[in-house]
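Tutorial handout. Part one gives the primary structure; part two gives the three-dimensional structure as tokens.
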Amino acid sequence: MKIRSIVIGSLLVASSMTTTYAGLDIANIAEDNSVSLTLNMDEKRFGITGGCNTIMGGFEIDHLDNFVAARNLATTLMACSEPLESMSTRINSFLENHPKVVRQDNNLFLVGTIAEEPTSVYMPVVLDQGQYKDIKAEIYERIFIYVSNEKIACPSNPEAKCLQIRTDKNEPWKPFEGIIEGFSPEEGIAYRLRLKEYNKGTENQRWVYDMAVEQEIVQ
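Part two.
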């Protein structure tokens, strides 16, 4: 997704839901918007999901709003497809180049560069715990769901394909027509996910991907 921007002083605010610099059109680091960085400001820890494996570690944000990841980062150890492996390589390069923390309204992003790529990209930031400047983390509940390796026709639109989910492995699968933010399932893989549920029981309820607790290739 490309984004148009307008200048406000040294900061450029996009007409879409992001922020950029230097009058450039900035693309999301992932075309499917599956990659995001979660910040715990209380413990100065972060995690990135959406590549092959979750990347975790400490960080600092310097006086110029540059995001500086710790040198020794941890990662989960799951086997992944080549496209996801490639995304993880791009994410690591993005971090090594110390992207800048950019704010638009109450939304946070990292904007930076990747080695051997000519243009800047952005990565959405989710504030998980604590506060960044005057932006406070939203309250959420953690929930767990199972996701089938097979999609089915959506009840409201048979031409579209929907995930099948359940909360208990002994329950029948149910079609899910909503969105799990930050989750991009691979074909043929079944998952057990840990999610963040915001605004439970309201019209603004939403699910955000936290981590894959289990995943299995189903033949």
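Part three, for discussion. Confidence is low (pLDDT under 50) at residues 1-21. Residues 140-217 form one domain.
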